[in-house]
Amino acid sequence: MERTDGRSAGQIRTVRCERGLLTRADGSAQWTQGGTCCLASVTGPTQCYASSKEDAERATVDVVFRPRSGLAGALERQYEALIRRACEAVIVAALHPRALIQVVLQVVSDDGGVLACALNAACAALLDAAVPLRTLCAAVSAAHTEDEGGLLLDPTAAEEAAAAATGTFAFLPLLAGGGDSKGDELQLLSSQTRGRLTTDQLLDMIEAAKQGADRLAAFMQQSARQAAPLAQ
Length: 232
Known about the structure:
Elements: E1 15-19, E2 27-33, E3 36-47, E4 60-66, H1 74-90, E5 99-109, H2 114-128, E6 136-144, E7 151-153, H3 157-162, E8 165-174, E9 187-195, H4 199-225
Parallel strand pairs: 4-5
Antiparallel strand pairs: 1-2, 2-3, 3-5, 6-7, 6-8, 8-9
Subcellular location: Nucleus
GO biological process, one term: poly(A)-dependent snoRNA 3'-end processing
GO molecular function, one term: RNA binding
């Protein structure tokens, strides 16, 4: 199935990652996938701004998601919660008790798959900030259509609007250094779906997204080798 931009059903848009763009943050990264772009900044580990947020045993992770325009709403709050859980899964938070690690995400442009783009930007920014990480994660969006072929990886905004259901899936681990990551080594970390899917359709979507995440693994690993090593 060939799409309007010439890609095959299982092909991801061109990916670009730039780190260190913001001088006032401890780390930053801009992740671009096709026409979708998110800028992430990381501050910390630093002192918590409120004692109520302190955890005596681990760092507190705070995520702020800002839409391209307008004020954040209920959808952005959902994105913040999902991204925070993903960050908590990869950060070695026990190394910085009572500290705060804040991740701020700004949508620069949105042509579909913005949550996956934001998740990948957050991970790249954590690397740039030299926050101790257990591993990396990669996120991929997918759409289920009624057309022959059924599944589209990394859909554009127009493809998302026409789809019967869409989903965003984050996978780990993508180990940096030594060895290549294989699709069957990736574990589903989190997911968000919209629309109606049968169980089989959902499983097919997860499997297709896993293959897409596997193809992102080499790109993630290359980026990780250029940053601080992961915690063991």
